[in-house]
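Sequence in, structure out. First:
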Amino acid sequence: MTEAAQAVIYPRYCFHLSPTANSWCLVTASDIHGLRQHPGFEGENFFFYKNLPIKWARVVGPVVAIDEAAGRRRIYTIDDSSGKCIEALVKMPPPTTLNDAPRRMQARAGAAAGGAAEPSAPDSDSLGPYGHIDVGDVVDVKGALSTFREKAQINVEKMVIVKGTAQEVKLWEKRTKFRQEVLDRTWILSEKEIRRCRKEAEASDARLGKKKKHLKAVSEGGTGYPNDLCTSDGEIVHYNLERGNRSTERWWKKNYTCKKSAPQQRLASADIVETSSNISRETPQELRFNSTDPALTSGLGPKETEKAASLFQSLFTTMAPQDIFDRPVDTKAPPSTISVRKDHPEPRKGIRSQAPLQTNKFYSNFFLGDQTGPSFTFPYSVAWARGKGASGSWGLSCSHIDEQQRVFGNEKFNGASSYYLNPIGIQSMVISAKELGKETALSTDSITAFSARVHLSKNESSEPAVSYPLVQGMAYITAQFDGSVPLIQSGVFFKAVSRVTNNPKDHVTKYNFHLEDGTTWRVYGWRTKGDELDLKVVNNGLAESKNPFYGIIQVCKDPVTKGSEELFDDGAGVYPVTVTLSGSAVGKEGSYCFKFQKDGHQLGHLYMFALPHHVSSFNGDTKERVQDVRLQSPTKGVASLVKGSEWTMVERNMPIDMQFAPWHPEKGSMAELSDKAKGIIRAAAAKELSQNIPAQTNLDSMYFSGKALAKFATILYVVQELLRDKTLAKKGLGPLKAAFGTFAANKQKFPLVYESKFVAAWGGIVSSASYETGDAGIDFGNTYYNDHHFHYGYHILAAATIGQLDSEWAKANKDYVNLLVRDVANPSAEDKHFPLWRSFDWYHGHSWAHGLYAAMDGKNQESSSEDMMCAYALKMWGKVIKNSDLEMRGNLQLSIISRSLQSYYLYKKDNTVQPKQFIGNKVAGILFENKIDHTTFFDPNIEAIQGIHMIPILPPTPFVRDDKFVKEEWEAYFSKGRVDDIRNAWKGIIYANYATVDPKKAWDFFTSRDFDPQWLDGGASMTWFMAYAAALGRL
């Protein structure tokens, strides 16, 4: 009683934050009779347990009496052995006729005496919806709390018979758990939360006040104002929703129509429409009924709230755009022209998941090589210690590198360090189990595009001693125990260890570990059964649990900034399992959403770390949940802690008007050429189209063949669409179709194979080159899933361009090209032949080229511009085959790539994400998860290092490499005649890139009489480079 008296009763506008106000509270009859009412909440039927508001109750127990009461009410008395009974009130339906009720009672009496009931008066009707329930039945009752003559009772919403003792016991356990995790804890809100709730309530009241006239007009069937949200016309009600007051180009306005309902029901509908200002309008798909808003749900129970939400969705189903990730590109098996293999040169070590499997994701080191390479979850990295390192542990080591720990290379170009890296192998904290040792086996399962789970077992045949769910951006390293003995170890060594006396949550113990390097790590143990986590410090590198443990242990690094410890306490026991991706596009605005599937403790919030490009694109709601807690990430700047299980990122300027013609962000598509330029370009095109197209395209490399196919396709586009010379175009189109047909028929030098969903295979389309030669590096590792988005991206781009010129050809080759699309960019789990998003990493905002090779610095990608190329190819192929989802995903990917590359790959002087010692390089070179090396895999010269981030020059090039960046890079490396010292194919690439800011200079270079053919890359053409410069410069 003292605790209840001291608990703060919060204002009504805070109730939606409580764990009880909008929930079925599984309690005892004795609990209900002990609830109190407080002044100020009269008429709302809120009762209080301590300070927890309860309106909806659930009880379980046998029926001990059934009574009829005045006003057609039936009262079921429930005795749940808590020391008190509770009455459950059921309102009976009215009789159909004046004489119907007694006649039905007679029928029931006759049936009880052994007679037959009258067919016109079935027994169930006379007794209402729960006529089958009798004294002695154990029931599960849900209903609203109320009082009658100062005695608590339940107004039944639903009552079902419990099916046996086992179900009853489970309900008892749930009731006990609810008491321990909810009722036994005082509900506490911070002042900040109370202020926020008050502001939200005041804003809601203001909106509702302004809309009273609209409500009245709606309920009376009138219009009221020119822009009424609801107007009446005959038997139809028209709903109009205008999305804000922004320009019509960005926001939309549509009319929605529904059947007119009964007056009171119509008013409820209008209520929802009018108060839909409580729905987030940041992005199109965020049109949802806010069930926690008191303005919408006051006076409504869970059932009515659910109905209101359903009604809202039925009214505005067409309002939310299609999820562009929902539908597969295709689901057909690969054609018979592509042979199937059941094996792959790279074994699947310890993988328990079924194919198709991810090959290019952050956790790949756990099933490649010796399985000890680190996996970079950002901002942490984790690795299997495997008995090595300073800790000597067999568990999973956790590491986080601060900015001052980075290692920088010597200055090489433009006064910038040639590389920077984060030290690996630092075992700051290790979560292990006493059962692990020299026979420890590592396995993985639950493999997705965003997550995986790693298991460590005593040996190959044992069940896991400890399991680790890994998700990109996780704020804690989480370990799951089911009876093994936990060990906390360190290779940095403990300086001080303390146990916090006041647990942050029920059954969550907390330890503070201060390490010798000055860092602070929090350790939380949430027990789900058995003993609490009780650690004994054995030495300065080992703390051991005194007992077997059931539950989860979490480790996180605390930067020890204002409020950081409290936030980590709030998130303790809660952890992510995986992520689902969704998105939409309306006009130029696209959005994508991460929904983190969480598990663990019921109290507290999920916290995840976001990278800079996420934060800069967060919608309003997500941005408000960014916390002032940050940790340095390995290569993506500072990561920010975000509260909540859902993020929405918005791209407001997708290049939807970008086609095949040269394009500029400010000027749009630029397809007009002067007659003089056309004449010069036509001469170059005629010369290039006279080359041997089959010889240049049917090579022993999918990469180089794709580049050549795309080159000739682009030449033909210029000829037919920009020069309007259909005769010349027709001359080249036939040979190009035949060349592409070689690949569509799978008759190239190294045909593709589908290594299918078998125990030894991964699931995807690969070159047969490594199978036939035994060389893992041939064709840049295509067989090992290396560079697939580069290789297949060029083929898809070639197909899109040919298809633009001949739509019938596109239809005939659709299945083959879609197969390549599905291998690199499958959006849907409905396609069982390929993994989701093999190449593109939606968390990082760009792709990883690195396939099935173990690597201590994690995944990598060299050519950021070829990543752009693939996204552009997907967009244009989608446009050609009229697959709007594919086209919109391509637009969205281009926008995300543009944003992320300008933070992580392409460095202007004002870049604040990458280290100041490094941004003078202007480009990354090779970006790994753990380091950035300003070089290439094939050429250390500056023109190659910079040029690999230019190639190929395409319409989206200025969208990603903006004017300011191009100018700065030119001034740093190529101005004042330095570009003319380059005597290889990179020279042409660099000049074509410079056309973004000085198209005349580029045009003069390509049209010069002194132009040397060796300055032209094998995947580039004079035709396109001249057309590109001439169009951008209107020459």
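Second:
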Amino acid sequence: MFCTVNQLESLGRGKIVGWIGPNCLVEFFSEPSEIRRDVKTVSNANIRPCKLGANTRVYHRDEMNGLWWVGRVLEDDGNGATVRFADQNDVYCKHAEIFVRCKRPIEDPSAYLASSITETPQYAEARSRFLSSYIRQRGAAWGISALLSAVIELESHQISVVRRILNDPSQRYLLADEVGLGKTIEAGLVIRQAVLDDPKHHRIIILVPESLRHQWCEELNRRFGLRDFLDDSILVIAQEDPPVEIAAKLAKATMLVVDEAHHVAAEASDRFLQLYDCLQAHAPLIDRLLLLSATPVLRNETGFLRMLHLLDPVMYPLDDEVRFRDKIQHRQVLAESVAMLDPQNALFLDSVLDDLQTKLPCDERLHELIGELRPRLQGIPDESNPDLVESIRLLRAHLSEAYRLHRRILRNRRKRVQLVTPDRAGGTPIKIRETQLANIESSIEAWRIDASAESSGRITDALGQFHWRLLGALLSQPGQLRNLCAERLAALKISPAESFPGEVARLNELASVVDPDAWLEARLDQFADLIPHYLTGRTKLVVFCSDPEVADAVYGRLASGHPSAVVRYTLPSSDEGLETSSSVRFTSQDVVRIIVCDRVAEEGLNLQGGARLIVHFDLPMEPNRIEQRIGRVDRYGAGDPVKSLILLDEGSKYQQHWYTFIASVLGVFDRSISSLQYLVEGELQSLIASVFAEGIDALTALGHRLGGPVGAVATELKLIDQQDALDELMPLAEVDLGDIFDVDADWEDIRRAATCWANDTLLFEQLPEARRASDPPTDPPFRFRYQPPGHGGQATLIALSGFLDNFIGVLDYEHPRSTSLQPLSYPHCARRQTGVRNGSRLIRYGDEFIEALKSFSDMDDRGRSYALWRHARIDYAEAEPKFYFRFDFLVEANLSEAEAALERFQMRTDTACAAMARRGDGLFPPFVDRIWVDEDGFEPSTDFIERFLDLPYDKHGRNPRYVDTNLKSWRLRRLMEAAPDAFANWDLRCVRMRDTAKETLLARTRLADSKRAALARARVEDEVRQAQLLARIQSLTGRESDLERNQLEAEQAISKGLYGGISGPVIKVDVAGVILLSGTPYPLPTTA
């Protein structure tokens, strides 16, 4: 009886071979040549009996002659199975007479060739092509399987961040890229890699503001193919949820991602304080931790320390804020020098270099880099000289790595990352004709003058806040002024002492001049008339309104004239399909040209790409909200420069002054002001009081103080820029990106290799996807369909049960044509641009279907061993067949010493071991090498191999030069019987030929050159990394210095282990085959 065993599911099927009391003896079969079978004693309670599904591959040993035969199950009755062997030979076998391989990779297919277990060479050709493509992609992607398979554009700055995280045994990082550079993409790649590293046991919690939940789910589904895991093993949780519920979910987490982490770290409310305490308790116990925040450290020292404490509570204790502030202040001196390191300043760099050497006398790496740079500064240096540019880049990179606030802060800046985010093209004010705003402002001003003259103390503060609310309504929805007046009047009836003399009359006067509908009607009429002028070419409009009712009115008016072109954004409900949300329709459907949003869309919405025009239907009093609006479009996924239209009422002086302030002083329509948020928030708090006391003149005075080349805004930006220069990542040099873009561009070969193995050989059906207008004819998306026996057409050569168990995250059960017996995969394509455009999954290393196919191929013997008779009809006269053995070797870094180093430093975890595998692939890209040896152990000439051996299998003789005969098992054995001397000691000869081929491989210059280049690359990288750590240690004291010294010792031990793994790589046989080359046809009958 066959069975699976609880807690041993990874081994697949075993066979019960005996009982001992309450226990079973379960045999796990690996290969025919094994001397001792793996038999485990298992409690009866853990046994789950199972039948063998149709197409299960089984082995049968003929007790008469000891030969092994391979077949596939047709039907299992519970006691035995009907098995189809070669040439339609159906035999009923008892379970005791057949064996099924457990889920262990085949270590050496030479044993199968030695046992004359061979399959058609067509399998070997298709599998080898698939494997070569897979290994090439794996090497180009540095072993990061999430990278090529994610449906994203490949950007070098994001690749740099992801490589750094995933190569680190401890994956605890703060992603601090400036707004719009794609932190979510970087986090998504790390999340996807965590799923691929452990598909069955990961538990990932993503903690986000409620307004971002839908956006995160949409991204994880569309870009990262994680739909099947959402709400199951990947939970996107709102930060607003009760902390006790969040804590329960964190208790089982293997990874935690916190978006907008500065909100959680702020001490702004009791709710966030409770949430922070919850994270503080659980974060140290979670293997992987990513915090996402673009906020600068300046003016946010307390919040920044609280974020770093979650990453590293030992190095950054919360009671050490004074020293933390001092550290930031001391960094400023160094930051000023680093900010000058730019090729444009080449004429003035000598004094900067002198200053750096004075400030950092013990940094040997710094002095070395400065020594290399100085000769390039002699005379009048050419700013565009590549050597000069590279020398400055290396110097900045060293200073950033050695002296950043924390080495696990990863920050990219817009000024260093080109062509990824669109520029801002300024704002254009549109004057709206109206008749009531001047009177309204006069009434508000009259109320303010009386209130400021008569009030004092606490009442002044309350009146100032009410005045600010009046101004806010004036700018965003004047119709609300009546409600504010009514609310104030009602409060005064309860607390008349809070008023000033004559206030009731002033409020009634203000309410009387407000026509609630006139402002909105005037704007709607004139805005609707503007639409045809701006809705031209490819341009799409994003309309922002502060008030939901105003947004509804705007949508209604526009939809009446453009019914199919306008959508209204609302937060999607939990049961709404991601693909049908208004934001996805706006970004993906050409017919949808306008999206109308209210305040809820100012955070968490991605509307970038193509030509976008932002319409500010009103102008909020909070500049950071305007920044957030533009940030919905001005972000990763570049499009055309982003323009803004701002509707301003002709009669409103406050609107005009406020527009001038945010446009000219802050410059929000020309650049991102996200880094100024703390300065702006602080100034606004002061402005509330001053504008109440002084009126509109306070706004003018604030503009004078903040604006200009020496104003507070310019000064703040300079200080932030200098601090950021110490923490930023330098762009990767072209050479550092390796082959990834070249490999990715070779999508046609990748597609052919995958479909040749999956469709042509293993007989998955290829089902074309319904064509969209945007789909290119060169790469039409399609689905893989599993075909069971007896449903028409050829059956897929994988048992259905094994397919369902292993192809996790692959199957789209919601598709109407997908059934339990004929499941469909998600749609796939091969060209990256096609996938990014229509959301199809990419046929790449790391895709769930490709990974499942690779795992199956590692454990299945088809394509691993073959034999053929090749009748050479031209240029070969030898009648006696000559044996030529082929061995394909997979060569990859040996990780055992590096993993031992992890163990020694108590760093060994599954995450750390996976990181070592990626680091090994990055240093020593794996490769497949094919070795041919003749029967005497000599390697044939390259010319001979090309003319007679490395040729496509051709059983029909379409090529006039040769015709092939597949020596499947029974033919090969019959040939052995006919020519016993030629096959003498066949099993030993196969082993000897394998060893000879391996010696040939070891002697090849390719392997030696690969090892030499990898070691050189590793030593250069390690020298730089360790020099930076040493410089960092020298700049620190006490506990921080000790922790970094331990890190340096661990890095040195890991590096030594990797050197050993490169010098002595793992070499595995992937394919073993033999060609009997003869000038005569195959001499025996070809039928059994």
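Remark: The two ends are 32 Å apart (CA to CA).
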